[in-house]
Each structure stands twice: as C-alpha cells, then as structure tokens.
Amino acid sequence: MPDQASEPALSGWRLNVRIVSVVIFNFASYFTIGLPLAVLPGYIHEGMGYSAFWAGLAISLQYFATLLSRPHAGRYADQLGPKKVVILGLCGCFLSGLGYLLADQTRGWPLLSLGLLCLGRVALGIGQSLAGTGSTLWGVGLVGTPHIARVISWNGIVTYGAMAVGAPLGVWIWHYGGLSLLAAIIMGVALLAVVLALPRPAVAASKGKSLPFRAVLGKVWPFGLALAFGSAGFGAIATFITLFYDARGWEGAAFALTLFSCAFVGTRLLFPNGINRLGGLNVAMICFSVECLGLLLVGLAPSPLMAKAGTLLAGAGFSLVFPALGVVAVKAVPQQNQGSALATYTVFMDLSLGITGPLAGLIMAWTGVASIYLAASGLAALALLLAWRLKFWPARTTGQATSS
Q1: Which fold has domain 12-197?
Q2: What is the residue extent of each domain of the chain?
Q3: Which one of 210, 216, 370, 371 has the fewest beta carbons within 10 angstroms of its own beta carbon?
Q4: Which of 98, 187, 85, 171 is nearest to 128 (CA)?
Q5: CA atoms of 323 and 155, how far apart (whole Å)
Q6: What are the pLDDT digits (tens) for 26-67?
Q7: Average pLDDT over the chain, rounded to whole?
Q8: 160/151 Cα distance (integer angstroms)
Q9: Which residues form a coiled coil (predicted)?
C-alpha cells in the first residue's frame, strides 16, 4: 500500500478524523458482535432447549472462525487492497444477521435452527477477521506508516466502544422484539456500513512478491509471544473477576470491569504519540510493568478498593501493549506483507484469550481464584523480560534496529 507520510500537514485533529473515517467500519463489525453477545447463550440454552455445552460451542464458533481466518485476511488485504477486504468482512457480518433471522424462523426444527445459527456465528467470525485487519491497513494506507501506532490504537478504541454499547443495547432490543428484530438490526448495520464504505477512497494493493506464511511467522512470532503473555491478564480479568469478587464476598465486580475499560480507553487517548516518541519496545516494557503490578495487586488484594486499583492499573498497562508491539512486528516485514504480519501477530492474542479461560479454570480449581491473577502477573513479567530481550535482538532476526 502506498505510504502517504508525505503529507506533513496531516496531524492532530485532521489525522484523527481521517483515521476514524475508516476504522468506523471496524466499529460496525464489532457492533454486530456486541448486539447478540448477551442474549444468544440464553436463547440457545433456554429458548431452544440445548445444553450449556452446545450453547458455549455455538458462541465459540465465532472465535474459532476468526482465529483460523486471520492469516488469510491479512494475505487478501495485501493482494486485493484493504477496502475490498473490509467490504467482504461487512458482508460476512450481514450474513450472520441473516443466519440468526432464519434460525428464529425455523424454531420448529431445532436441529436446523441451531445449524443456521452456527453458520451465522462462523460468518461473523470470518467477517470480523476481514473487517478488523482490513480497516487497520486501510487506515495505515490513508495516513502513512509513521502513524500506524495511532491507527492501531483507534481500532482498539472503536472495538471496545462497540462492544460496550452493543451488548446492553442488544438486550433491550431482544426484550422489545426478540431475535428476529435483533437480526434485522444487525443486517441493517452491516448494510449501512457497506453503503458508507463504497464511496470512501481506496488504497492500492501492495506490489511485490509476498513472503510465505512461514517466513512472516518467523519475523513476527517473538512479538506475538510477548503479546500472548500480556493478554492473559486481560482474559483473567474479563472472565473471572466476577467469581473473584463472589469468592471474597465483595460487591462491585461490574464497576471493576468498568474501571479496566476506562483505563484502557483513557490511556490510548491520553498518550496517542507515546509509541512514536519512545519506541514500541520501550512503551511495551513500561506497559508490562504497570500491568504486572496491577495484576499482583488484584491477586493479593485484602479489600475491594485494592482490587479495583489493581484492575485500573492492569487496564492502563494492557492498553498500549497491542499497538506498541504491533508497530515493531509490522515493520519487521516488507511493506507488501504488512497485512499478513498484522494478522499473524493478532493470532497470538486470539490464542492467548482462547487458552486463558480453560487453563485459568484448572488453576482456580486447584489453588483458588486469587492464584489466577498471580499467575497472570507472572506471565506479564515474562512478557516484560521478552520485550527487554527483543530490544537487543539481532536486527537480522527481527528486521528491526535495536533502538525500536
């Protein structure tokens, strides 16, 4: 994709507006994820009569589809151009709504209904993978690679914002009109996003010979591994903070999650140029240190106030981990492979979040829920050590100078 860093006047407000004008399509894709998030498990388990296992499997299909399709999404973005990939992803979100609608209309045939719903989940997972990767690369193509950290940061902001808005709104829509109305709104959101995306300026697909997946993985894996270690804390808080509060007899778990989210978004908004000024690996080390301290405070907390302080620090620390390491990972490959690099790098976070749940559950069963956060703090410390090692990694291994 072309580097448009030659526009020196593109800064501040104009820069943010141009980025948001593209990453808003990732907001649309995550909005279609958030809308049914809080209602589908109950619909499958209670409304359709399937066990909790089948309900969990149907929901997880989206995440498996995202995981498996990410490397392909990056390659297609490199070859076809990110705009086309974003539109294809939004079409996948539209098909997910269609799957929900048909599932609701065929409730009289439970097996068919569940199959249609599962197809919708798979389409959503693929759609999110395409839209998320494509919108990031589209934004980078519009504002230039010097602003890649800000593009990734804004993508994270719209992602969490869409989920935060979509989930409660989806519950309200469900109570008002059931799954059919919810499905229709999902289809409408996706269709509107496609209509708005079509006239937006495209960026050309990258030219040049693409590296094979193994070569891209060889460049990206150290940064992805550090990301995976750091993401475990996020997974532990998002999944188990309620159980942690219940085990201690405390109230306010929901507020702790709110603090985490506010710290996450607030840190990205307060330090938009931190990565460019300090370097990706330096910012990552600072972030891992703060996240490690926050998770340690949660695990050792004798009171809910200390636990909330820990979640606040963990959210602030984790906030810039993805863009900080992502900048270095993407620059480790030639420009025509940046989509594949970004997608491959993101897979490590997907894997981490997928593995954290069951592993943390086993740890909790053996040693108690507090030990989950102590273990996550240890993983954040490992991520810190790995990031420090990467600063002095030979440039021929990572493709980066040690000053990154």
Answers
A1: Growth Hormone; Chain: A; (1.20.1250)
A2: 12-197, 213-398
A3: 371
A4: 85
A5: 10
A6: 999 989 988 887 777 777 877 777 776 677 677 777 878 887
A7: 82
A8: 15
A9: none
